[in-house]
């Protein structure tokens, strides 16, 4: 059947060429619709339930909200783990589901479960918000605006919200424009507490009155002529004067008691909870969030155009500067992968020129690449695979392998031509001769990636598109090798003179000499196989002995020239004190000539809640992002160590440095400089003492920078202790008094007032001079329902207490998180920490588990082992089915363990780590190295049937396969060299994979050229 199809292709050459041209044309058309992004769409099976219960302690939040929610949602189908974090005023319940769970259905079921217990939660707690984990939820662009000629710099934020924000909101594809920094206006209703009491008005009554009156209501319809016109009751306040005229109490005189009688109403700038600075100057920052599925690069181009127009339009007032642009890294990474693809193809082509010593054959093989890739893009489009770091990385890795099948077919055709056969017969017989081996060889490479494409864990999620890209392109390369290549051979090989004098002058490849040396060495191995077997075992043992000294991590480290600094001061620290310390840190950073920019977010902004509902506004924490110039001699980690030595802190000030290594690491919450463990149990004191004991042991290790325990973090707070009997006597409740105290201390936002299309908050409060001490607060008078005015200290007392800042639970057990800061320059430190943890005596009351990177590494290792074993089984099944022999299939699998002889020493010498990228290299190698064994076995049986002499068949088979094996592996190795040398941004992620594949191929090919023939020879001798 195949011979007939091939003969039709050779007879109908024009029609055949038009068929392949059509495939390429449809592939080109599909290119327009393939999206460009940094990473594929990554969805993790996680939900977070956020519930607020303001002014409640972590303990109250845990008992009243976190526990009931955790118990009910733990019954949702597919839930693997339930964790909760209870902080002051907020409960966060994190649900992790089994991989492959339908998250839309899980979200619906979670809502139903929460509705069942809504009545069991505190009535004044918020409705629980359920959010999916969205890796793309971070801002893709940041634009910093500075004032030029606005006069008062405090006007900058309002001016930007009024004049500029709308330009970015109009861009198609922008989901959210978030404004952070600067000053926000509010209308403040400052109550005089003495006058308030004289009018017998309660503050809580005011808040309800203002909120209910500041509204417009539809009031039905009124006939007007032949029409019914809508009637609207207008109540909204337009000015502060309107607000001041609000009648609080009616009277017989007609004027009544108005709000302005006992309060001052004025516009002011709110007390700031956060400050934003860029390069030391206070600024306002626009964070732009894109809609899911939108092309980041195209959207960024549109934002740049708008920014240019805005700067031109308002050049006298403000200046906008793009401080962060995710599209730059995407473009550089994608362009780098394109370059790697091209360089790899050129290197492979040059190697073929030098080996084949003619232009026809390498050119024919080079033409196979576009004819393979373009139809592949058609399938990419149908399967929803975009161009990203993973899919293009798969193409860059596989470009060398695209030659493999075609190499074998060309070699077979040329071998038949050298025997004097006709061109068409040589093409038909040569292609048919190796059809089984190329199908088997390509299938083994494809089959090892299929498990990856269907694994639903983190490994499968990350590498699915890379695996599919390799599977699709290799499938097309097989199709092209047995159809298009023979067709082109029929056109280009009409001239039998292959050798080129020009190429021969530069070629160092001498196949006859190589075969002569190889056969001589093979004879020695056949004469004394035990000696070489001992050498092989020794090399294998040596390679395994290096394994403990190879660093193990989840994601390979990438130097992006970006540093994140997190500063945390004691709970209760005022914003100004934090701001002063951040200024000190900024001064040291900006003194470094290699620093390009420094963006500081000090405290928190309420606007952050729009993009991240789980954000907590803390006035004691700050985040700095430092970008370094590209032209520098030091690595980012060396610069971090230098900054650590210059920035002085204290026991009360926590400073964490983190090098941003890639966006994938951010998505997976990767922390290279931190190791995390969980101490689980019910006894808090025992958990705390266990953490302290471990802390002392770990701090003795060199390279440890700090060790922190969750239970160490406590905050001091004032407690209002109510005398319930007296409160009942006065007719007061906890809610009334607590609201009164809150209004007195910080005020509450009761409504909003529209002003020039801006909604300005209305806040009710008291002068700070009246409540700036415990004594003054206690002397405040509150009105009872009976009309009496009594001071607070008549029924309450003040006390101080020390409480945990947060309570963490994992399932039914409490968690004490042990976080260890390490210096990444100490390579074996993680192993020493784990040894210390393992040596700590365990009890039934306390468990210790790894989290963070180590837990992810352990999980991915399980997935790799599963994929490895599954791929091994599939390869064995494929080979057994092809050769109808269990024994022969097992012999060919001997080539797989040989890869470790080269890979472990190579990783050790190049200082590359074992990570998910290098794990993929091992899986890729499995398919490639078996290809060589399969090709040899195919020819060995061909010659054995012809010559009936195992030794003669052995040497004839090795003589035939030596060239395609050298060609295939040379093109694969050279195709991956650009990735190994990290010639472009983003290629660092694939570099460990390239090191594993190249070193594994070099050793396994050389060794298998001796091991496989030797085993096959003695196995056939034994059978005979």
TrEMBL record:
<protein>
    <submittedName>
        <fullName>Efflux RND transporter permease subunit</fullName>
    </submittedName>
</protein>
<feature type="transmembrane region" description="Helical">
    <location>
        <begin position="864"/>
        <end position="883"/>
    </location>
</feature>
<feature type="transmembrane region" description="Helical">
    <location>
        <begin position="960"/>
        <end position="981"/>
    </location>
</feature>
<feature type="transmembrane region" description="Helical">
    <location>
        <begin position="467"/>
        <end position="493"/>
    </location>
</feature>
<feature type="transmembrane region" description="Helical">
    <location>
        <begin position="337"/>
        <end position="356"/>
    </location>
</feature>
<dbReference type="GO" id="GO:0005886">
    <property type="term" value="C:plasma membrane"/>
</dbReference>
<feature type="transmembrane region" description="Helical">
    <location>
        <begin position="916"/>
        <end position="940"/>
    </location>
</feature>
<dbReference type="Pfam" id="PF00873">
    <property type="entry name" value="ACR_tran"/>
</dbReference>
<feature type="transmembrane region" description="Helical">
    <location>
        <begin position="363"/>
        <end position="380"/>
    </location>
</feature>
<dbReference type="InterPro" id="IPR027463">
    <property type="entry name" value="AcrB_DN_DC_subdom"/>
</dbReference>
<feature type="transmembrane region" description="Helical">
    <location>
        <begin position="531"/>
        <end position="550"/>
    </location>
</feature>
<keyword id="KW-0472">Membrane</keyword>
<feature type="transmembrane region" description="Helical">
    <location>
        <begin position="392"/>
        <end position="413"/>
    </location>
</feature>
<feature type="transmembrane region" description="Helical">
    <location>
        <begin position="993"/>
        <end position="1018"/>
    </location>
</feature>
<feature type="transmembrane region" description="Helical">
    <location>
        <begin position="434"/>
        <end position="455"/>
    </location>
</feature>
<keyword id="KW-0812">Transmembrane</keyword>
<dbReference type="GO" id="GO:0042910">
    <property type="term" value="F:xenobiotic transmembrane transporter activity"/>
</dbReference>
<feature type="transmembrane region" description="Helical">
    <location>
        <begin position="890"/>
        <end position="910"/>
    </location>
</feature>
<dbReference type="InterPro" id="IPR001036">
    <property type="entry name" value="Acrflvin-R"/>
</dbReference>
<keyword id="KW-1133">Transmembrane helix</keyword>
């Amino acid at each position: 059947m195949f011979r007939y199809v091939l003969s039709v292709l050779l007879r109908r050459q024009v029609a055949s060429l038009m068929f392949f041209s059509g495939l390429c044309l449809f592939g080109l058309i599909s290119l327009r619709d393939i999206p460009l992004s940094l990473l594929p769409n990554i969805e993790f099976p996680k939900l977070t339930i956020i519930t607020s219960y303001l002014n409640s302690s972590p303990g109250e939040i845990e008992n009243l909200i976190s526990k009931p929610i955790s118990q009910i949602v733990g019954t949702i189908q597919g839930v693997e783990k339930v964790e909760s974090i209870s902080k002051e005023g907020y409960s966060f319940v994190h649900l992790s589901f089994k991989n492959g769970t339908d998250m839309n259905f899980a979200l619906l079921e979670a809502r139903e479960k929460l509705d069942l217990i809504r009545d069991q939660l505190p009535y004044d707690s918020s409705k629980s918000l359920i959010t999916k984990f969205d890796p793309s939820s971070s801002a893709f662009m940041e634009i910093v605006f500075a004032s030029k000629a606005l006069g008062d710099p405090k006007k900058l934020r309002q001016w930007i919200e009024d004049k500029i924000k709308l330009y970015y909101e109009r861009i198609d594809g922008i989901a959210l424009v978030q404004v952070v920094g600067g000053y926000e206006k509010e209308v403040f209703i400052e109550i005089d507490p003495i006058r308030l009491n004289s009018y017998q008005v309660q503050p809580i009554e005011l808040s309800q009155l203002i909120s209910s009156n500041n509204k417009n209501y539809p009031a039905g319809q009124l006939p007007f002529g032949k029409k019914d016109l809508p009637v609207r009751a207008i109540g909204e306040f337009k000015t502060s004067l309107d607000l001041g005229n609000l009648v609080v109490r009616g009277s017989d005189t007609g004027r009544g008691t108005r709000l302005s009688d006992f309060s001052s109403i004025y516009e002011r700038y709110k007390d700031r909870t956060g400050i934003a600075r860029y390069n030391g100057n206070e600024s306002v920052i626009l964070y732009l969030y894109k809609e899911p599925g939108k092309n980041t690069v195209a959207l960024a181009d549109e934002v740049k155009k708008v920014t240019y127009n805005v700067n031109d339009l308002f050049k006298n007032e403000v200046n906008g500067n793009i401080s962060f642009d995710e599209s730059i890294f995407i473009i550089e990474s994608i362009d780098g992968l394109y370059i790697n693809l091209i360089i790899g193809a050129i290197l492979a082509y040059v190697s073929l020129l030098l080996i084949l010593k003619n232009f026809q054959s390498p050119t024919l093989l080079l033409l196979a690449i576009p004819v393979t890739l373009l139809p592949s893009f058609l399938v990419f489009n149908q399967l929803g695979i975009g161009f990203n770091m993973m899919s293009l990385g798969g193409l860059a890795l596989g470009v060398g392998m695209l030659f493999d099948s075609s190499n074998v077919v060309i070699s077979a055709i040329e071998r038949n031509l050298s025997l004097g056969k006709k061109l068409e017969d040589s093409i038909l017989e040569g292609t048919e001769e190796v059809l089984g081996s190329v199908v088997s060889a390509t299938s083994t490479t494809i089959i090892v990636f299929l498990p990856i494409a269907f694994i639903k864990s983190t490994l499968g999620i990350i590498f699915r598109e890379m695996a599919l890209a390799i599977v699709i392109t290799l499938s097309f390369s097989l199709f092209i090798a047995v159809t298009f290549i023979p067709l082109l051979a029929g056109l280009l090989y009409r001239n039998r003179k292959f050798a080129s004098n020009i190429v021969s002058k530069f070629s160092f490849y001498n196949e006859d000499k190589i075969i002569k040396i190889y056969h001589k060495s093979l004879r020695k191995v056949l004469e004394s196989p035990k000696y070489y077997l001992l050498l092989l075992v020794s090399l294998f043992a040596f390679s395994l002995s290096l394994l403990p000294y190879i660093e193990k991590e989840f994601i390979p480290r990438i130097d992006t020239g970006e540093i994140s600094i997190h500063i945390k001061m004691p709970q209760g620290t005022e914003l100004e004190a934090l701001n002063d310390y951040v200024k000190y840190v900024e001064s040291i950073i900006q003194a470094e000539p290699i620093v390009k920019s420094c963006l500081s977010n000090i405290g928190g902004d309420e606007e952050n809640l729009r993009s991240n509902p789980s954000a907590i506004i803390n006035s004691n924490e700050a985040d700095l992002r430092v970008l370094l110039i590209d032209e520098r001699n030091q690595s980012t980690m060396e610069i971090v160590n230098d900054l650590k030595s210059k920035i002085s802190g204290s026991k009360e000030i926590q400073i964490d440095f983190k090098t941003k290594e890639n966006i994938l690491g951010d998505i997976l919450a990767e922390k290279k400089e931190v190791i995390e463990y969980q101490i689980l149990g019910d006894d808090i004191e025992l958990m705390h003492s266990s953490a302290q004991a471990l802390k002392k042991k770990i701090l003795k290790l060199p390279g440890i920078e700090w060790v922190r325990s969750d239970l160490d973090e406590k905050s001091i707070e004032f407690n209002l202790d109510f005398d319930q009997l007296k409160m009942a006597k006065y007719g007061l409740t906890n809610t009334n008094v607590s609201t009164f105290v809150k209004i007195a201390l910080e005020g509450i936002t009761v409504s909003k007032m529209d002003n020039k299309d801006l909604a300005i908050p209305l806040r009710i409060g008291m002068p700070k001079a009246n409540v700036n001490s415990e004594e003054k607060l206690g002397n405040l008078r509150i009105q009872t329902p009976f009309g009496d005015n009594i001071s607070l200290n008549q029924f309450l007392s003040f006390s101080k207490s020390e409480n945990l800042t947060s309570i963490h639970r994992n399932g039914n057990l409490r968690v004490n998180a042990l976080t260890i800061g390490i210096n990444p320059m100490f390579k074996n430190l993680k192993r020493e920490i784990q040894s210390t943890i393992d040596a700590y005596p365990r009890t039934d009351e306390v468990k210790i588990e790894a989290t963070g990177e180590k837990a992810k590494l352990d999980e991915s290792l399980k997935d790799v082992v599963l994929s490895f074993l599954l791929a091994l089984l599939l390869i064995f099944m494929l080979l057994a089915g092809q050769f109808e022999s269990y024994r022969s299939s097992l012999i060919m699998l001997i080539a797989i363990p040989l890869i470790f002889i080269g890979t472990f020493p190579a990783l050790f010498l190049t200082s590359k780590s074992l990570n998910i990228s290098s794990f993929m290299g091992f899986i890729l190698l499995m398919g490639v190295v078996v290809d060589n064994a399969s090709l040899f076995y195919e020819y060995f049986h061909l010659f054995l049937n012809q010559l009936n002499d195992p030794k003669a068949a052995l040497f004839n088979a090795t003589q035939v396969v030596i060239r395609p094996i050298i060609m295939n592996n040379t093109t694969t190795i050279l195709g991956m060299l650009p990735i190994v040398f990290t010639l472009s941004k983003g290629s660092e992620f694939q570099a460990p994979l390239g090191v594993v594949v190249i070193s594994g191929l070099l050793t396994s090919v050389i060794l298998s050229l001796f091991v496989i023939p030797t085993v096959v020879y003695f196995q056939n001798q034994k059978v005979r």
